[in-house]
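Need residues for this backbone.
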């Protein structure tokens, strides 16, 4: 498939600016814009619309009524199409705490469904088991475990790379678990943690690349003891933000963005099975959750993921922080890709990367709407 998108305002991730130009793709890969001698199969006149990279969600447990821990092949295909329709072209399936054999089975099913015609499933994100019971959130306490390198080896061998794990570094005081993650070629996030400021600084120096859902499932910022939030805001690692206005208040998102800037902000959905569905009862791993009025809650009232579309999260970031589209785009595309080491494949509209993109139009009521989705160099009907 040879595609030309002409007359577009194309996003440059390096400068966070839009420039009028054209995007040339061949067999799903972006080519240099000055490539000559190609007879195109499809020419799309963007009519001056904004062309941005497809969104990259590295922290999402499910949507469309299904959870990655238990979804079968058909359900995974349904999820992939639902992600794509929402503007997400790359997904890192995220598994919450579950019995180890169920995590392995989930990894096998996800591997078998990586190309279903919807959003691309890339790698695996394990958010569970190796977390602090005091900040477990909606996850099952009885299934938690101390960081286990033997389990890690087995899971990575089954899931393959890229592999990303959220864990509580204070449960790995000698650093053996984090070292093994990095030796295997994976990446790591600090989350569901009760780290001190000093422990967080040490974890960054040892190789964590991101703080998982900043503010959530960690001690709050305190003026006498900084803690993990202070370390995250003043450090150098990426920080995930769930911009639904529920997990974090708009004013706290504004504070975080003032500290992080577009350079270190990673937007995630942390979406659960009820995303894109009516209010009702769903599952997050093995935990029953109820979605009502946009909130996903356990029986005891704990937040259980979100019902957020990542595109809506990007628009919310713009609204909450009073920033323009060009600042927000990198937070939902290149930054998440960099945080888990897949920016060689996705996250920007550079030659050699997958030709995944969204055409956006300004909208008075919503800010912007998705007019067209491009996946692997092919226009998608939405």
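Answer:
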């Amino acid at each position: 498939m040879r595609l030309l998108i002409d007359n577009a305002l194309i996003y440059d991730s390096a400068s966070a600016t839009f420039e009028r130009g054209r995007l040339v793709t061949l067999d799903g890969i972006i080519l240099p814009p000055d490539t000559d001698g190609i007879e195109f199969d499809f020419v799309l006149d963007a009519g001056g619309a904004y062309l941005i990279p497809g969104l990259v969600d590295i922290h999402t447990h499910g949507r469309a009524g299904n959870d990655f821990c238990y979804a079968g092949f058909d359900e995974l295909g349904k999820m992939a199409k639902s992600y794509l329709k929402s503007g997400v072209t790359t997904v890192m399936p995220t598994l919450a705490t579950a019995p180890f054999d169920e995590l392995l089975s989930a990894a096998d099913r996800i591997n078998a469904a990586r190309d279903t015609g919807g959003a691309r499933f890339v790698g695996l994100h394990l958010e569970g088991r190796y977390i602090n019971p005091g900040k477990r959130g909606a996850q099952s306490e009885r299934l938690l475990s101390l960081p286990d390198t033997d389990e890690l080896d087995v899971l990575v061998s089954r899931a393959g790379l890229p592999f990303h794990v959220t864990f509580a570094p204070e449960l790995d005081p000698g650093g053996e678990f984090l070292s093994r993650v990095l030796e295997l070629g994976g990446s790591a996030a600090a989350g569901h943690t009760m780290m001190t400021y000093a422990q967080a600084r040490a974890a960054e120096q040892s190789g964590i690349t991101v703080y998982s859902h900043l503010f959530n499932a960690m001690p709050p910022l305190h003026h006498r003891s900084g803690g993990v939030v202070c370390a995250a805001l003043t450090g150098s690692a990426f920080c995930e933000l769930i911009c639904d206005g529920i997990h974090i208040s708009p004013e706290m998102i504004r504070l975080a963005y003032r500290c992080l800037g577009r350079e270190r902000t990673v937007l995630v959905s942390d979406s659960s099975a009820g995303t894109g569905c009516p209010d009702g009862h769903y599952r997050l791993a093995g935990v029953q959750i109820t979605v009502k009025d946009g909130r996903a809650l356990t029986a005891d009232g704990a937040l259980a993921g979100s019902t957020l579309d990542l595109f809506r999260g990007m628009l919310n970031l713009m609204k909450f922080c009073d920033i323009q589209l060009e600042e927000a785009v990198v937070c939902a595309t290149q930054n998440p890709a960099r945080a888990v080491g897949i920016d060689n494949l996705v996250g920007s509209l550079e030659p050699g990367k997958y030709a995944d993109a969204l055409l956006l139009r300004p909208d008075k009521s919503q800010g912007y709407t998705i007019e067209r989705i491009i996946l692997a160099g092919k226009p998608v009907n939405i």
